[in-house]
Amino acid sequence: MKFSSQVQLKEDNLKLPKEIRLAKFAGFCYGVKRAVETVKKLKQENPERNICVLGELIHNSQVIEELNALGISSLDVLPENGDGICVVRSHGESPEVFANIQKAGFEVYDLTCPDVKKVQQKAIELAKEGYYLVIVGKSEHPEVIAIKANAEQYSKNVIVAVEVEQLKPFEKELKNSKKIGVVVQTTQMLSTLNKIVEYLTPLTKQLLIANTICQSTSMRQTEAKELAHTSDLMIVVGSKKSANTTHLAEILKDITNTIHIETEVELENYKTLIDKSEKISITAGASTPDSVIEKVIEKLK
Question: Which pTM was predicted?
Answer without folding.
Answer: 0.84
